[in-house]
């Protein structure tokens, strides 16, 4: 609707009239001086007032989802020792119907970045955490307002930081106005617009928090009390905290307790704690749907999102999600509520589903490090360095055979988006194009499959429903991709067709077959093929994320994405000790790239199968009972020195036949994604261009 703004009249008392908006239905005054006028305001109204900030006059504007404030200029008059405050020139602060343009010195705050709004009779009172919604309604009522201070707590990313542009910090700003009605009007309007913002409806009020006091530096409880709890209280989040005392306690609670009163699950710990939460939520969803936990027909999506607060040794999951392992940054993302889908990989042997992996599944060098380090837990985080050096000098190689479902190497059509999956390689950032396309295709695919399943169930006769239940679960998962492909492709445009065809063989809709392979009656779509690789390997790594950390900013898999439905299979051949040093140096620096090393192979796949050459296929080689236990309880038990162990999110899996499958955005996590690192440029050197994967990223450091 078209609207026009009248010029506000400034007064000498420091207050102004609110701007009037004219719509197709008529004109109305946004603020008429009465408390009842607040309820009539909408997000399309434009509020304009004079406030004092640190005893200086500011012109404050609330327009749409933006809060703008700018200091008023001082103009000298003829009489000596007297100045007059006047508003900024109209052309520097304008509001249009389609877009907004503000002055060069304006401070702009988006509603998505606001943590809380609180008013008080004094500045100290306005800095206190806001009351609950019920108490706020009782306090407001029809009583006369008295608060003259308005404090806005908001989050800000340190985009200008030369060391870490991904860190966020909490800031506050306090406005003063002598008219208490204006202060209450602004408070209500800000709260309403925050709630109506795109991420406002995703903010949590009830949170279940698990604290691991033994992980990392054993400072999980102190980290939560010092950095996280005050922020949750400021945002009005009701958090229920549980301090774990044993391994797998989180998983047991998530499987057995009622979680209907909680809106999200938060964990304070390392990568192993995060993996335990994800495993508990996924297996809980399986039980709710009546699926077989050992051989599920498909992998369901949990209903509760996951929040992660870093308190471990490396915290690779948090670092990959946010670009930093800063505790305040992770807590701020939980408060702001914005979520993204995160890929999760299932790990199974030739008999059953073992567990789910959130970060990396590695065999060889990293598996030896994980198993060896458990003997030196008394060393703290130094145990990984000691065990890593010890395993590095041993330079052992392991014979293995791998089968992987290779992605198509060439696009099906000219300028097809399938090139996103091949070349050029792109790094996952906030507003990642690759992950966004995968998310949209996942939603369309889920909608079509749900409609197809509903139609199939309606056709079944009541007397045949029980007999055909098991058959429907198996056949639907094997044939749905083929039967629905034509209907789905007809609803997608040409830009998305190639991407959809490459996702037809998604493991989330396939049952586990004997030997970890697909059924013999299933034909692979065009462009997909199995590839077999044999050799002697120093390291075999299936990376679900970049696995970055403070010591390895790019991680072991620099070009892995958070939500594209693929994993990177990294194979490091057994070579000389000097080549192993080259490999570690390339993973440690920002400029390194392991793909340039001749003895390293990187494959992008959705599923791979691993087996050893000489391992006998007997039940004694399976470690189903121990695969879900912490390292300390089963590390290296009964495993010959001829074979290595699997390091799955910090836990040891001793099975010798392993299948790893990626499930696209299986779980929602609180994050916005990392931002590109912009190294300070020398004078006269142009800034780096925005990466291909974040061409629409307005938060990128390169654009600041």
| Structural shape | elongated
Q: Mean pLDDT score, rounded?
A: 75
Number of helices: 17
Total beta-strand segments: 27
Determine and state the CATH class of the domain at 356-408 and 528-615 and 643-666.
Mainly Beta
Which key features would you list for this structure?
704 residues, alpha+beta, PH-domain like, Rossmann fold, Tumour Suppressor Smad4, 10-stranded antiparallel sheet, 4-stranded antiparallel sheet, 17 helices, 27 strands, disordered N terminus, disordered C terminus
Describe this protein's structure.
With 704 residues, the chain is of the alpha+beta class. Among the domains are: 46-72 and 104-134 and 143-198, PH-domain like, CATH 2.30.29; 202-342, Probable inorganic polyphosphate/atp-NAD kinase, domain 1 (Rossmann fold, 3-Layer(aba) Sandwich), CATH 3.40.50.10330; 356-408 and 528-615 and 643-666, Tumour Suppressor Smad4, CATH 2.60.200. Helices cover 27% and strands 25% of the residues. Strands 18, 19, 20, 21, 22, 23, 24, 25, 26 and 27 form a ten-stranded antiparallel sheet that branches. It is elongated and about 95 Å long. The chain starts with 20 loop residues before the first strand and ends in a 34-residue tail after the last strand. The model is unreliable at 1-40, 88-99, 409-423, 459-465, 474-523, 616-640 and 680-704 (pLDDT under 50). This is DAGKc domain-containing protein.
Q: How would you summarize the topology of this molecule?
A:
Elements: E1 21-23, E2 26-28, E3 46-53, E4 56-63, E5 66-71, E6 73-76, E7 83-86, E8 94-95, E9 100-101, E10 107-110, E11 114-120, H1 123-126, H2 133-140, E12 149-157, E13 168-176, H3 180-196, E14 206-211, H4 220-234, E15 238-243, H5 249-256, E16 264-269, H6 271-289, E17 306-310, H7 316-322, H8 327-336, E18 339-348, E19 353-357, E20 360-364, H9 365-373, H10 382-394, E21 398-406, H11 433-459, H12 462-465, H13 469-491, H14 494-501, E22 529-543, E23 567-573, H15 577-588, E24 600-611, H16 624-627, H17 631-634, E25 646-648, E26 651-653, E27 658-670
Parallel strand pairs: 14-15, 14-16, 16-17
Antiparallel strand pairs: 1-2, 3-4, 4-5, 5-10, 6-7, 8-9, 11-12, 12-13, 18-19, 18-27, 20-22, 20-25, 21-22, 21-24, 22-23, 23-24, 24-27, 25-26
């Amino acid at each position: 609707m078209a609207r026009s703004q009248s010029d506000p009249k400034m007064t000498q008392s420091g207050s102004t009239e609110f701007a009037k908006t004219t719509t197709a239905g008529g004109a109305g005054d946004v603020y008429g001086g009465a408390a009842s006028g607040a309820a009539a305001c909408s997000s399309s109204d434009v509020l304009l007032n004079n406030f004092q900030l640190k005893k200086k006059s500011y012109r404050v504007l609330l327009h749409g989802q933006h809060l703008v404030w700018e200091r008023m200029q001082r103009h000298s008059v003829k009489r000596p020792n007297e100045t007059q405050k006047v508003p900024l020139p109209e052309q520097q602060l304008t509001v249009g119907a389609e877009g907004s343009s503000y002055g060069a010195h304006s401070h702009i705050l988006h509603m998505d970045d606001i943590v809380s709004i609180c008013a008080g009779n004094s500045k100290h009172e306005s800095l206190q955490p806001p009351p609950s919604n019920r108490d706020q309604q009782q306090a407001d009522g029809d009583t006369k307002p008295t608060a003259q201070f308005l404090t806005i707590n908001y989050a800000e990313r340190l985009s200008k930081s030369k060391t870490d542009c991904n860190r966020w910090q909490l800031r506050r700003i306090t406005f003063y106005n002598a008219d208490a009605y204006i202060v209450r009007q602004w408070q209500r309007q800000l709260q309403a617009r925050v709630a109506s913002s795109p991420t406002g409806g995703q903010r949590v009020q009830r949170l279940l928090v698990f604290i691991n006091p033994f992980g990392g530096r054993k400072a999980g409880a102190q980290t939560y009390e010092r950095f996280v709890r005050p922020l949750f209280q400021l945002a009005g989040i009701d958090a229920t905290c549980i301090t774990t005392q044993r391994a797998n306690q989180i998983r047991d609670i998530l499987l057995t307790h009622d979680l209907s009163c909680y809106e999200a699950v938060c964990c304070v710990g390392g990568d192993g704690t995060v993996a335990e939460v994800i495993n508990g939520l996924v297996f809980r969803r399986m039980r709710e749907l009546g699926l077989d936990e050992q051989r599920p027909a498909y992998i369901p999506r949990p209903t509760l999102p996951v929040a992660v607060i870093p308190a471990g040794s490396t915290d690779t999951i948090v670092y990959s999600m946010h670009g930093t392992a800063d505790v305040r940054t992770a807590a701020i993302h939980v408060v702001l509520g914005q979520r993204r889908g995160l890929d999760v990989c299932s790990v199974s042997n030739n008999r059953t589903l073992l567990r789910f992996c959130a970060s990396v599944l590695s065999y060889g060098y990293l598996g030896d490090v994980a198993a060896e380090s458990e003997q030196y837990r008394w060393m703290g985080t130094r145990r990984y360095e000691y065990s890593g050096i010890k395993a590095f000098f041993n330079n052992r190689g392991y014979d293995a055979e791998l089968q992987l479902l290779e992605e198509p190497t060439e696009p099906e059509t000219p300028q097809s988006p399938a090139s996103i999956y091949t070349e050029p390689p792109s790094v996952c950032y906030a507003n990642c194009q690759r992950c966004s396309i995968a998310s949209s295709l996942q939603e369309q695919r889920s909608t079509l499959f749900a409609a197809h399943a509903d139609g199939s169930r309606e056709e079944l006769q009541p007397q045949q429903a029980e007999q055909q239940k098991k058959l429907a679960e198996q056949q639907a998962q094997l044939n749905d991709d083929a039967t629905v492909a034509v209907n789905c492709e007809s609803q997608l445009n040409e830009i998305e067709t190639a991407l959809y065809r490459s996702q037809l063989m998604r493991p989330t809709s396939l049952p586990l077959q004997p030997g970890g392979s697909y059924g013999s009656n299933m034909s692979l779509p065009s462009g997909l093929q199995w590839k077999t690789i044999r050799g002697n390997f120093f390291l075999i790594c299936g990376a679900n994320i970049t696995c970055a950390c403070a010591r390895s900013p790019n991680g072991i898999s620099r070009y892995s994405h958070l939500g594209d439905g693929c994993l990177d299979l990294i194979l490091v051949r057994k070579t000389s000790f000097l080549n192993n040093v080259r490999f570690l140096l390339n993973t440690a620096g920002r400029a390194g790239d392991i793909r340039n090393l001749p003895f390293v192979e990187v494959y992008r796949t959705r599923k791979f199968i691993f087996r050893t050459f000489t391992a006998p296929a007997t039940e004694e080689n399976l470690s189903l009972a121990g695969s879900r236990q912490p390292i300390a309880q089963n590390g290296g038990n009964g495993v010959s020195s001829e074979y290595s162990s699997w390091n799955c999110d910090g836990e040891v899996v001793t099975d010798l036949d392993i299948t790893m499958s990626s499930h696209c955005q299986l779980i929602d996590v609180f994050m916005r994604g990392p931002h590109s690192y912009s190294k300070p440029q020398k004078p006269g050197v142009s800034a780096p261009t925005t990466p291909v994967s974040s061409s629409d990223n307005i938060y990128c450091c390169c654009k600041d």
